[in-house]
What does this fold into?
Amino acid sequence: EVYFKNLSKQKQKEVMEKNGNHHKLRVCVATCNRADYSKLAPIMFGIKAEPQFFELDVVVLGSHLIDDYGNTYRMIEQDDFDIHTRLHTIVRGEDEAAMVESVGLALVKLPDVLNRLKPDIMIVHGDRFDALALATSAALMNIRILHIEGGEVSGTIDDSIRHAITKLAHYHVCCTRSAEQHLIAMCEDHDRILLAGCPSYDKLLSAKNKDYMSIIRMWLGEDVKTRDYIVALQHPVTTDIKHSIKMFELTLDALISFNKRTLVLFPNVDAGSKEMVRVMRKKGIEHHPNFRAVKHVPFDQFIQLVAHAGCMIGNSSCGVREVGAFGTPVINLGTRQTGRETGENVLHVRDADTQDKILHALQLQFGKQYPCSKIYGDGNAVPRILKFLKSIDLKEPLQKKFCFPPVKDNISQDIDHILETQSALAVDLGGTNLRVAIVSMKGEIVKKYTQLNPKTYEDRLELILKMCIEAASEAVNVNCRILGVGISTGGRVNPREGIVLHSTKLIQEWSSVDLRTPISDALHLPVWVDNDGNCAALAERKFGHGKGIENFVTLITGTGIGGGIVHQHELIHGSSFCAAELGHIIVSLDGPECLCGSQGCIEAYASGIALQREAKKLHDADLLLVEGMSMKKEEVVSAAHLIQAAKLGNTKADNILRTAGTALGLGVVNILHTMNPSLVILSGVLASHYVSAVKDVINRQALSSVKTVDVVVSNLADPALLGAASLVLDYTTRRIY
It folds into this structure.
């Protein structure tokens, strides 16, 4: 309700005037089963919280009213909703004919209800045969229809029903970018499509930290531990009932062999469910010591059960959609969910025709923990949907319009009818500061937060989480959709696992640190981590001079010297994630000592620390300051003073800079002879002071075949943050599920 109280009063007044003088939108929400109620309930709560805008009528039908399926209408009453009408529409038999007769019975009963209610709009969810009856009735009675979760792809007859409802519906709320594109391809009006995310995620993403052990014990027994049980939910496949029953039998055999405590939920009311229940009873599942068989679990409790399970198995859409929000491993059996977008937590067993295949999948998945996925929502769907409802102009013609190809380029719509900016949370862990930014797809830093980097691991991680949570919350206000978190940090990083293996001396207590897991768990977002030099190269590849270049090298010249290598458009990490430690190329056998413990490294000559060291030597010998320079007593000598002195004619300072530039140039020559890139990009605060010296060394020392290389200074203001953002933006926008 906090979302809704914060809406602008002026905007509310404009909407009221648009729909007539203080006319409330009469919304009918029709729910058919436990699954669609979990998606509709958050919307119903939102509508109920704004009585000045909406009147809510609730119609209950379908399996909600059947004892064998748990009489789930009671949970609607427990949520304090007034049920206006109960319609018994299910014809028992659980076969194909019974499904058709159920649709027919609903079509007979619904007109009377809709005539009495006279809603302005009906909200219909999903792809069930009951929902098809609702949409057909409303369309024929000239009632506007808002369809939730259109455009998605899956197996069985559900696909056809979902798309049929799409063609009947006047407005569409979809959950993913792909679903939105499918709706557009189906010629739906661009202006009537809202990409909001799944409403159930508004509840999911705030649920995991609640007390859960009592719920687990209630459903599975006192001796069960988290991550040590399985949730099984399998429905019949109406287009191949015989095979789906056989697959369910094999699944139960595999679960019995796997010998873990398992919560089995009864299947839905589709054709074939009666036979599946017979299989359960034939195998004694209801009396087996390892199994708990139940008809229904309240959604709040079901969330906790799957969030802390060792694995979920079956073919329910819940497994491939909602469970990804917790990173719980999922085994998706058969073809019922074919085509759905899934996170990396889902293992597909398409041809589940043997017990061994399913058992092997259980052995692979059980007990794992994956990064949390937000493919289907970011927790802000309901406020978007409510604003969308308020924008509906009842004076507009009811007749649908179809947009046949060619389609427009800019077609998406969010709560303000403007394309929400796909963005990343970028984190830069420097030796001094910790920075977090919201970065758009175009490389614009929308908002940036900066704090001093704490000295201890615990304080540092706590501050990262705090800053990221603050930024993620602010993203909604600045109209940004966060796709994930990218982290740039000093040291050697294993990007596959999201672990800092060991760090430089500039960042203390930063070795063997798993950054991905705690941040992903807290934000329910995928997380990527890489070395700051590699991130600088990625920033150049996406936003800078490296865009479209097949082979190039980036050198960072700052407090230390780092870099990244892009070869054939891909970043090189090396066999032990130590590639592109360019600052530690040795250019002299007896040079100054480096922080790495060696001598003669580029970093020992050309880094900010090295220049500061030489500046202190000159200052201690009273050879640094020249005419036009002054320093306060408490002022710390830095590399900037050395550069200033060189510019004002201090020959000793100038010689130090020349030596540093030569050392960097020799390192670049070695890189040219090893990697043969077509471009070298100098990045960082010292880049502009070194570029001329580097070019001179290349002309003197490099082989003629590589002298034509371009050496440029980066034009990116913040490569570390932009590189961290590109970790997210490159991956999430090109990934194929």
Summary: The radius of gyration is 31 Å. The domain at 205-365 is CATH 3.40.50.2000 (Rossmann fold).
